[in-house]
Design a protein that fits this description.
With 500 residues, the chain is of the alpha/beta class. It has 15 helices and eleven strands. The protein has three domains: 187 residues, Ribosomal Protein S5, domain 2; 79 residues; 122 residues, no CATH class. The protein is elongated, with a radius of gyration of 30 Å.
């Protein structure tokens, strides 16, 4: 728990009367949260004492404190308590400091306080009643008080008040704070780690890397343009829809390339090329694409196996091997996902009330296009990556496990969505409950396969699991969990003007 004196003021009760001001004790608590969902509580001294702006500002304060502490927002419950009636956000920067100090274990200095509204980007923004709050700080025996940057002159008074000069007269040092980092150092005397933006030059790609990436982007753009200019992508509604998506990504790739943003251009161009190829496949298949899809699957599967043999022969350098290994694993995952989609197309068709051909075609075409692109990339890397550097010891089973883990996640996600659709249909039409339960069980089984694959890889690896590629770290989720903020209790206290 952290308790800090919060400054407040209230407008005059009648014309000509002086404004009211003072100090209230505000307490911040961090509690264990086994549920893991977002939870912020604002305690009230009596029913209706906390206004909506005060409650909302408590959520913002809890969020920014979690961000700066590097902790998941749902890892703990946040509770703030203040006496009296309050509405507004002028104490939210102080509340954020309180939560953050509790996270870090730092004490709050008793002779200091501040006023300011916190925002999600950690800025401390302007509030009302700054002159009165400096006077309140003096009455409370404070020696140092922070005000939002830009409010050293309080233009709400007539004439405007220099609050820094007023503070000197009262024996209170007034300082301007711009960010939560400033506020934290003021109230605790300790500096927070500050992220310093690297200069653009330090983040620039090396010339050779940039040239290689630009060449790859230009090849992908040229290939996507060639495919989209053909007549085949105009055959059928599904092909036209996929081609439309490809053109949007192609436009983004060209825009990024013109701006010199090679990473963005690379992502967009690769996506455009895959979508264009998927549209081409859909146009070629027209009606029932399951038979030609199985033929293409077999060809790609054979190519993947031949490339894996080249990789396992170990004639490349270690970095090239790692890149090819992950690329081949992704290709294999796409192939496995396409195969699972083909095999499950009758069940998906029943759930979606479509023909089996239509239920499978777009998803299969997309996955096969992704696999084809990944295999081409792997082959190109293998052609140019011959190296005398000793090779890594790669295992064919490990490659297969990597692929199966990634594919299980992808397939599980598809099956889970299908199960949700089936459940929705079951509520509207008479569908057997056992069929719905079976669909959820199938999805769950895929997630469990992914988890077991990941665990096996970790157990057999000498590396730190934290350094393993993302596709090798898989989690299971049995039921959907919402992390959106739920309504906080309409409890939360403070002073009626404390926030202004």
């Amino acid at each position: 728990m952290r308790t800090i004196d919060s400054l407040w003021y209230a407008d005059p009760e009648s014309p000509g009367a002086p404004p009211q001001f003072g100090v209230d004790r505000v307490s911040m608590y961090l509690l264990d949260n086994p549920a893991g969902d977002a939870s912020v509580g604002v305690l009230e001294e009596y029913s209706g004492a906390g206004g909506p702006a005060w409650r909302t500002s408590a959520w913002v304060a809890a969020f920014v404190a979690s961000e700066l502490a590097g902790r998941p927002f749902g890892a703990q419950r946040f509770v703030v308590s203040a006496p009296g009636s309050v509405d507004g956000s002028s104490a939210s920067a102080l509340v954020a400091v309180g939560f953050l100090a509790a996270f870090r274990g730092d004490p709050v200095l008793p002779d200091r306080t501040l006023t300011g509204s916190i925002t999600p980007d950690f800025s401390v923004t302007q509030v009302g009643g700054v002159t009165e709050k400096v006077r309140a700080a003096k009455l409370a025996g404070k020696r140092k008080v922070g005000v939002p940057v830009g409010q050293a002159i309080d233009d709400e008074t007539e004439p405007p008040t220099d609050v820094i000069a007023l503070g000197r007269q009262l024996g209170v040092e007034v300082v301007e704070v711009a960010t939560l980092h400033d506020a934290y150092e003021l109230l605790t005397g300790r500096a927070l780690p500050l992220a310093i933006a690297a200069p653009a030059g330090a983040m620039a790609l090396p010339a050779l890397t940039g040239e290689a990436m630009r060449g790859h982007v230009e090849r992908e753009i040229a290939e996507a343009t060639r495919v989209l200019s053909g007549a085949v992508v105009k055959r059928g509604a599904q092909a036209r829809a996929e081609a439309g998506r490809a053109r949007r990504w192609l436009k983004e790739a060209r825009r990024h390339l013109a701006q010199g943003a090679l990473v963005g251009a690379h992502v967009a161009a690769s996506r455009a090329a895959s979508l264009a190829r998927g549209a081409e496949l859909l146009g070629q298949w027209r009606g029932d694409g399951r038979a030609p899809a199985k033929v293409l699957y077999a060809a790609l599967d054979e190519r993947a196996r031949s490339l894996e043999k080249v990789l396992l022969a170990g004639s490349q350098g270690p970095l090239a091997q790692l890149e090819v290994a992950e690329t081949l694993a992704r290709a294999r995952a796409a192939l496995l996902t396409a195969r699972a989609t083909l095999d499950n197309s009758p069940r998906r068709a029943r759930a979606l009330r479509r023909s089996p051909a239509r239920a499978a075609s777009a998803a299969v075409a997309n996955q096969l296009a992704v696999a084809e692109s990944a295999l081409e990339h792997a082959a190109r890397t293998l052609r140019v990556a011959a190296s005398p550097v000793p090779a890594l010891r790669l295992d064919g089973d490990a490659l297969e496990q990597m692929a199966r883990g990634l594919a299980a996640v992808t397939t599980g996600t598809v099956e889970y969505i299908d199960a949700l659709l089936l459940h929705e249909l079951a509520e509207r039409v008479d569908r057997p409950l056992e069929e719905v339960q079976g669909a959820f069980a199938l999805a769950e089984r895929s997630y469990l396969v992914a988890a077991q694959t990941s665990a096996a890889l970790v157990a057999s690896s000498d590396d730190d699991p934290g350094t393993m590629p993302p596709l090798m770290r898989v989690r299971t989720r049995r039921t959907p969990t919402s992390t959106a903020p739920t309504s906080s209790p309409s409890t939360t206290p403070s002073r009626s003007s404390c926030p202004n």
